[in-house]
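Q: what does this look like with manganese (II) ion bound?
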Amino acid sequence: MQNDVANNMEEMFVPIKEYIKNEDSLELIKKAYLYAQSMHEGQLRKSGEPYMIHAIQVGYNLAKLHAGPSTISAGLLHDVLEDCSVTKDEMTEIFGEEITMLVEAVTKIGNIKFKDEKEYQAANHRKIFIAMAKDIRVILIKLVDRLHNMRTLQFQSPEKQVKIAKETLAIYASIAHRLGLSEIKNELEDLSFFYIHKDEYYRIAKLVENKKNERDLQVTNMLDHISKTLKAQNIEFRIFGRSKHLYSIYKKMTTKNKRFEEILDLLAIRIVTKTELNCYEILGHIHSEYRPIPGRLKDYIAMPKMNMYQSLHTTIVGDDGRIFEVQIRTEFMDDIADNGIAAHWAYKESRKYDQNKEQKEIESKLSWFKDFVNVDAEASYDDPKGYMEAVTTDIFDANVYVMTPLGRIIDLPQGACPIDFAYRVHTEVGHCTVGAIVNEILVPLNTPLKTGDVVKIKTSKQSTGPSEDWLKFVKTQHAKNKIKNVIMKKETERKAEFVSKGEQILKEELRKRGFNEADYLDKNKIESVVAQFRLSTYVDLLYAIAVKSVSVVNFVEKLTNQKKSVNLDNESIEKIYNREMPTKNSSKTGIKVEGVETMMLSLAQCCLPIHGDEIIGYITKGSGVKVHRVDCPNIINEKKRLIEVKWDDISEKHHYFAHLLMLSSDRNFLLTDIVTVTSQNKAMLQNISSDVNNETLTVTTKMIVQVDNFEHLRVLIANLKKIESVINVNRIIQ
Ligand code: MN
């Protein structure tokens, strides 16, 4: 296409007159041409050429795609609203609403501004897709507009060249591919490739050039051999060698990590024949003559690609051991392969353009595109990159073709499962899926589908909706978004329940402690306290209380400015001890003093010995013997009043208290875990209090536990240390 240009009205009308015979239609195009010419009069492009040259190229290339007269006219006028002092109303008066609408849509796409950040780019790409989907003809005009702009990109600044080239590759080449406009796609790709990776472009161009003579010779030999074989069969055909465009070589080298020499289809042959039957006959003859490489036969005739591409592909080993990719197709298929959708309607059109019919025909062919964009308009993309992913995985990398029981072909990415299929069929089908039958066999929902599978989805109105597990195996972004939407909705509902439950708990706690709700449930007051729990809103707090990641007791204490925990002084400990554990009697402390039966014994409150600890007795003045741990700092320097004591064999269960100090990093549910582990270890938690260090984000937890003996405590400490995020646990002396 590169050198195939029109420079004036006459040249532009050559391809138009081939298929548009209707006088009125030709008049309309002529009128648009003259109008654009007068409006762009005196304007120059950056190249120094008259602006009209650009409009002519757009009209010409649309004609080569066999576009209808409205589309060509809009193409000629596409820059008039933007660049000339013409208003929408004036244009409507002269050319009618339809053409004006097309021009306006094209203008709007041009005005979508790009920002530098990648994310914004993706968001803008999406805007472009949506804008184009409003009327499919807008895509065609925009594509040929971009094609000419790319051809003349050398007149832009280097920064703009790269920016425009990237956009072209991401959007316009992709769409061209999707529409099967492979000539335009290839040219857009190679031009973009040139501006984005100049070094690589030149390197590959040179490699191709170096190999050219050798390759040409090999291909020529192969063409001769195949021609001889086929001529003997009386089949009508034409055969030719085909070279891959540079960008596709580059892509294969980078994405498949292959060396230049390894790229198989560098040597490629195409055979074009009359009928479908001829295609299969030719395939048969070639396979009987040359060894086919297993697994490389692709029948896109029986199973057309989504962009309507049809062809037989096979890879064979040539006479000298060289590998060739052979494509076999009819003339019609060949035209579709080059011009995609455009070829399709050109064949079917009665040549007498009826505007509505033109529109309808194109629209129906491109319904996939509308579906695609509508789906996206519905899903909210917080992450615009996710959108680009959706574009590439869902649409452009489609390569598994499966069928509904009624024979409708659904294309899916590699590895897609019945859930992906269900969501492609219909969102509701996806949501209600309970089972899948593939080729009449019931299969698990995560079974990867293969091309040719006939898939039937079992649905149930009683289904509880998509499961979060599905996200682990669905492949299409489309299905992922639909599933996520439902899950998010459910979560929001569940959260609302928790929030109201949290509110109840909070109010109850306040009431229980005799506070007046109204005094404390003041928004400002609450939010200042909420921050201390590193939450941002009251609602977050209520949720946290309901799921117990924040203790309502702690919160209420902070809110009401009460002390966070009760610090036990000696007196209160004494009370506990007196209540819980009488210590005046040797049998009850489990301690005995050799040779003395009646001495008053009690456990020292400072170090709280536990059965099994190494202990020593201290003879007090008037209150018997206090038993300390041998390493207790209070007696360590004592020399005179010590007396040896021993633990009695345990005949009955005694309870001892131990003070523990735990260091951990902060997290939700830590307290819950501590309580759980303690009770699992059959120890009783007497008191617990913690302090968060907001700088180090560590928590210091003090606890008093009641245990049976030293071994019991040792096991408890070992298990407390196993709790997630716990750094250390130590028994301390008060
Ligand atoms: Mn333009």
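The longest helix spans residues 477-512. Residues 54, 78-79, 145 surround manganese (II) ion (CB under 6 Å).
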